[in-house]
Amino acid sequence: MARAIVYTEIGSPDVLHLSEVPDPVAGDGEVVVRIEAAGVNPIDAKIRGGKRPSPPITEPRPVGFDGAGVIDSIGPGVEDHAVGDRVAIRDTVGTYADLLLVPVANLASLPDSVTAAEGAGIGIPAGTAYQALRSLAVTAGDVLLVHGGSGSVGQAAVQFAVAWGATVIATASPVRHDQLRELGAIPVAYGDGLLERVRAAAPEDVTVALDCAGTDEAIETSLALVADRDRIATIVRGPDAASFGIRAFSGGSPAPLTDEELAWRAEALPATIALLASGDFTIELGPELPLAEAAQAHELVESGAASGKIVLIP
Known about the structure:
The chain is α/β, with parallel strands linked by helices. It is built from ten helices and 16 strands.
């Protein structure tokens, strides 16, 4: 029997428990991955806690969307992967497990230079940042303002934008400013006077803004600085983004992603792995916890008590 973290009711982290589940069997176009690391994301906790809409629970519900590991078995029609290959996983429910059935479309090869923990930290954060910046048409010459630049999505957005030739200004608490400078951003502290600090830091007018913080301050500052509201987006304030005339991705956005945006999310996984392998991208790793301590991992995510990507190790 395989092991997986599941829950049978919406509630606090304590509803998560380790359970034995049937071993997965690969079908057409599928592989079974032996998970070596599972990425813990805020969305995991929000779904578990009922802060995001989800269908009624009628059977034990698995947790997690991102992970990395080694292919344990393959199904019919799988040609580009083999047993023993190292892979990263995106958009596959149930990565908090030791074995997982994964469609090959949700895999990317993981070179030896990229750790399993790094591979597990890519999916949602990098996919969200990459798609948001592509949707906002960020390119060389832009001046991008990233609110919440020290978070996992914010750090990914900074690095993609810098790689594409944009100038990046990122908000964070002062203790995180050196880290943002290392990623190539101009850091500014959030709080009273943010608008004036950004104007002073910007070498030219801010042309595009991405809100990863979700505060009124972030929205108001973006509106004051960016002339084209189509080039302002939030990944947090989905339900009320339309009232500001800005775009929303993730964050409870009522608008589904377009086919092009979904393709960008898929493209992000191999693109980020390539950057990691070349030394042009970093993932800030946080605590590693045993799979059985998933509840503690959710407590850390919800409290903000840990910096960096939290991963679970089966």
